[in-house]
Design a protein that fits this description.
By secondary structure, the chain is mainly alpha-helical. The chain is built from 2 helices and no strands.
């Protein structure tokens, strides 16, 4: 498996986990602690996904800069 396929697979997994957490929240939770835990999970997954996207964009920019030299 090449690097890009691994990255896209990881992105897809993060999106699936976000959707799963959101579905659990929408179905309702028993207590505030569980709700806060799920919100924390969703935030962590979202931040990871955003950071991965930023790195991919930066990598594409770096590649363009390096090919121009």
């Amino acid at each position: 498996m090449d690097e890009m396929n691994l990255i896209y697979k990881f992105q897809r997994e993060l999106k699936e986990r976000i959707a799963s957490v959101e579905e659990t929240i929408l179905q309702g939770v028993d207590n505030l602690e569980k709700y806060q835990y799920l919100i924390g999970q969703r935030k962590a997954y979202s931040e990871s996904l955003q950071e991965l996207s930023n790195l991919l964009k930066k990598g594409a920019y770096d590649d363009e800069q390096n090919s121009g030299n």
